[in-house]
Amino acid sequence: MQTVTRVVAPVRSQVQDLLKLMIFEGQLAPGDRLIERDLCQRFGVSRPLLREALRQLDAEGLVTSQPNGGVVVKMMTVEEATDVYAVRAFLEGGAARLTAQLGTDDAIEALRERTRAVERALGDSDPLALRRAKNAFYEALQESCGNPTLAEMLRIVHGRIHLLRTLTLNEPGRMAAAVAEIRAIFDAIEARDAEEAFRLSVRHIENAASAMRKAWRPSAGTTLEN
């Protein structure tokens, strides 16, 4: 059970982070309603504080307020999802290129360990571990690119990508293909081949976008349901 402490970070930030984690790991799916009373009891916080955290998540595009009141996890249209992947390809390709050019030996080693963790999770056939390992790889890539503004923009985009990840990883064969693509991106970065790292990163994201479109449920209309 998730709880918050009253040290280290402001309580509102802790609530925000816990809600993000629940969304990122699929505990809260697109369309799920966030019941304030239940969340206040779960986290042991006041309703005004919870609402502050929800407002921040709304600003980041992870939740949305309903016209009749209440908040739900955001459901994107296929057009919105396609746009998010296009932005991610541009930014993450740039991060891979910069890391290949400027990444320190320690940063490369951290990426190596994250790549191995992704491969282990695939070998263990553990979808949640794979989701976490992939997230950790992308976080390491953001941290190693040497451009804090780019890294911050990528974190925002990745927040929205989490709303789509269950859909893409459920596409047959996508999990293994994604892991192979991550290994190829790392190998290019380790070889300091900046243009190849950029190309492979962009292709990785284009393949994820393609898997998203293939897995889209026609019966869901224009909204995404995981």
Describe the structure.
The chain has about 230 residues and is mostly helical. The chain has 2 domains: about 10-75, Arc Repressor Mutant, subunit A (Orthogonal Bundle); about 80-220, GntR ligand-binding domain-like (Four Helix Bundle (Hemerythrin (Met), subunit A), Up-down Bundle). It contains 9 helices and 3 strands. The chain has helices at about 10-25, 35-45, 45-60, 80-100, 105-125, 125-145, 150-170, 175-190, 195-215, and strands at about 35, 65, 70-75. The protein has a 3-stranded antiparallel beta sheet. The relative contact order is 0.15. Residues about 220-225 have low confidence and may be disordered.
Tags for this entry?
9 helices, disordered C terminus, 4% strand, 226 residues, Four Helix Bundle (Hemerythrin (Met), subunit A), Arc Repressor Mutant, subunit A, mainly alpha, single chain
Return the CATH architecture of the largest domain.
Up-down Bundle
Could you tell me the mean pLDDT?
A: 86
Tell me the CATH topology of the largest domain. Answer: Four Helix Bundle (Hemerythrin (Met), subunit A)
Number of strands: 3
Strand order of the largest sheet: 1-3-2
